Amino acid sequence: MAPNLPFQMNNPALFRDQALINGQWVEAKSGKRFDVYDPGSGKVWATAPDCDVNDTDAAVKAAHTAFETFKKVNPRTRAQCLLKWDQLIRENRDDLARIVTYETGKPIAESQGELDYALGFTWWFAGEAERVQGTVQTPSAPGRRVFTVKQPIGVAVALVPWNFPIAMILRKAGAALAAGCTMIVKPSPETPFSVLALAHLAHEAGFAQGVFSVLPTSLDNTPALSESLCRHPLVKKVTFTGSTRVGKLVAKICSDGLKKCTLELGGNCPFLVFDDADLDQAATALMALKWRHAGQACITANRVYVQKGVYDKFAQTLAEKTKALVVGHGSEKTTTMGPVTTPRSLDKAEAQVADAKKNGGQVVLGGSKLHGQEKYPGYFFEPTLITGAKDSMLIAREETFAPVMALFEFDTEEECVKMANDTSMGLASYFFTKNVDRTWRLLENLEAGMIGMNTGNTSAAESPFGGIKESGYGKESGKDVAVAEYLITKTVDCTPTPPTLARQRSGSPSRPRWGGKVSSAGGTRSRSSLRSYILYILCALAIVASFVALPRIRAFVAQLAFPRTPFSFTTTRPVTSSTMVADKYRKPPQAPPLFTHTPDSLVSDTKRLIADSKALQDKIVGGVTPENADFKNVLLPFARDDNNMSLESHIIGFYQAVSTDAKLRDASTEAEKLMNDFAIEASMREDIFKLVDATFKKQKDDPSLDNESRRLLEKDHKGYIRMGLGIPAGEQRDRFKAIKKRLSELSITFQKNLNEEQGGLWFTPQELDGVPEDVTSGLKKGEKGTENEGKLWLTFKYPDLFPTQKYCKNAETRQKVFMANENKCNQNVKLFKEAIVLRDEAARILGYPDHATFRIEDKMAKTPKTVDDFLGDLRKRLAPGGLKEIEKLKELKKSETGDADRYFLWDHRFYDTLMLERDYQLDQNRIAEYFPLQTSIEGMLNIFEQLFGLVFVELKGKDRDAISETGKGEDIVWHPEVHVYSVWDDQSEGDGFVGYLYLDLHPRDGKYGHAANFNLQPGFITENGTRRYPATALVCNFSKPTPKKPSLLKHDEVVTLFHELGHGIHDLVSKTIYSRFHGTSTVRDFVEAPSQMLENWCWTPSQIKSLSKHWSYLTPEYKQAWEASAKDG
């Protein structure tokens, strides 16, 4: 229980006032305790155990015993413990900040800031835990192999100061624990409780007994206890932060045992301001750097050098800003500067001010201690500004560690650098200048381990922290270097047995190099084995192809030499129908899915599926214990339940994207909400997770499980953790569950609003001048006698929207359309804002700093920084070309309108299209004449037939009746316009059935508004070992055909069609054991790759020929219509 504290705690269990040895909270062996003072009041507010040399041996031996086990712990497990520690610290941030404020005196906002800064280390080192790696060298001697391995060094001791008790611990312990070392912390006598609270949370996070220990001690016992820890033979590493004087003693003691040391010592850091600096920027940075924690930071600015030309102005600016500081107890919200932490700092500040006055310095502000006044009972000193400082003063030669700032004047850069380097220390230096040449000189000439260039902040988890000269050695934080301080390197030389000798010894026959099958008959290779090679070749083509836009366009246009009379590039084989194929392709072994649901049946079927699944879950939980849990009795039944449920659930949710019946769409939405709520509840059942967790620990590396089953086990286990089961049961977990449910509702409602959006604008034909006639002829006309008589209704669907933005000559019309489309579905704005806030909250509950980090953790990029760096680099590379192109487009706009001072978003599609037409003779409308939707689809299916050995059989009329389970062909589609294909392997592939492909190509009210592929039923292996075949649907919104013209595709629409159809093919040819991994249900980084590679065919001349055919050749009626339009044109 916490003693009577001067503040309230949300989590009283966090306050610990005993030592932690071998996971046990104990008193010092002497039974003595020491007082801990509140610097803001000067009063004792708690006591701590006064450990001494008699406590050392038990703590070190326990840490060493723990090390023997901890060093073998999987790095990912160590990382997970660090992340859990990070999460718990975040949850207790406010309580920890209160403790820090009463220990150190710093304002509560600064204490909270220290927590936020410090948490960067736990998060960073959690990532570093899995990135410890050795090296492989090319040996000089043939036949040898040389490599290195990294291993944790052993028990580490951390001797830490009082100024940043949280940050110092997490920076040191984060690296040590990530490396696999155990750690004993000897905190400063002023700040034991913040460290003990961290130790409590470390234990809660799952670190084993003895891994993290804390020995508090008084100032009197600090030297002896520290020395005994450094000299103990089982201690292999010491990390110390403190004064240079004590650091040298630590180094000497450790040298007796040749122990590895990291020393972060005194600073006396210079801060340089040149004439050309941004003075406000420099002053703002200096205020934060100097007055933070009343000047008690090792990297604070101790000597401020200001060039003569701006000296007075800069001094005045600092004085004005400093006057605004509010000195007071750190717990008061208005306080911006608290007391110093110890009375010793008051004495030192007084001595330095007196010395400065004696040597000609002028005290512009402050200069006295406030300690003892009624308002300031604690260790307070006025924020003090001294001008006219000289190198002979004490403040120039020693660290101040108090709120005293001295300004030194200089004339030249050389003089300033000499003064800045005239110290035995070299921790950090700061300078402010706009001169690039000077910047490089200063970076090279200033003697410091860290340089702040136009900034006062040099510390972050990702940047190495440490000094040179007498400021110490070794690095804390940063990639590789910090963890390396806790590692040893072993070099390994070996000489492998020559391969010929190895085969003679084993008697094994040699295998084909590429894993081919050895056959006594010489070996034959089926066409089916080529599918993987084709995909491999596609990947290679996509990587090495270096097409750029304009050469592609030229090659593309070269294939479309527009004739005076239309002709077909190639004779495209029409898509096969069931009347044209052999009998073996006429009767699929599996009926297609039915679309006969009603609003009531959708909801009732959903409830039935949920009830059945829940019953199975309860049955398994009731009959299986963690002790006998395994893949067969836990994961496999759940996977089979998922298989069976997916046959219905995908279709139930699909109606909201395609049905013309609003009631059916609403029921589908309701059903999806029910299903999602159940999924969230099921994924947060702790009783199930215990079984999955037990199975994972037993069988994660079980060779008897096939690869897909091991993958299922890994994904399920990780899924439960990412759904919050790593959060302790209680308020936080309940909040997380509520957030997940609300996010599900928001997502469903958001998409429903988009699907059912029916907005548009009325325009006169004159306002739509330039829009292709085949677009305007299909627009709804205003009724006679109404205000819209003679007008046309332009919707925001793609077939209306894009042609208008590209070809409409009226800029005002383009602006209206653009703005209205961008502002459609305004009801989604509040949903979007709410989702952003909830996603961020959920991520933070899980211990992530933000939603982006949570989402990208298991992607190839791993961190948002990788993405930001990539996009930043991309922007840097592309921006010059983009700006150049915009200038060209503005010139084009000026030639059209006479005014191009401003270039708007609604201008871009229009002038970009115009540029292609004028500069590259690329007429998209003329090109579209050669891509009728019908023949483009036929051509694409032909390509897929050739690539993958497939046969597509279109099902119409009586053919649908014959395979429908109800005997009614209309029951196997959701709309009369939908095309259905049965898909088969061709003869070379074995003539087997593959699945069903649906094409829903044109817009309708209430339909999904973009282009996408939907899995209707996944494929998988059933319980009896047979194959369940998939069904997949391509949903698009291409323009509808008219009696006078078919639906024609712009080239970008051809690319879209090929892309989405690629997803469909991926869905069809995929063969997995479990529905969980079927088709596009693959890792997010890969899901688009096959379709993106297949898009390449849309730029290949030979494939363009096979896809294209002028629309006039489709029917005699179309030919007649084309001829008539050609005469009119």
TrEMBL record:
Residues 497-525 are annotated as: Disordered. Residues 25-492 form the Aldehyde dehydrogenase domain. One of its GO terms (biological process) is proteolysis. It is found in: Cytoplasm. It holds the Pfam family Peptidase_M3. Coiled coil: none annotated. This is Uncharacterized protein. It comes from the Eukaryota. Its cofactor is Zn(2+). The lineage of its organism: Eukaryota, Fungi, Dikarya, Ascomycota, Pezizomycotina. GO terms for cellular component: cytoplasm.
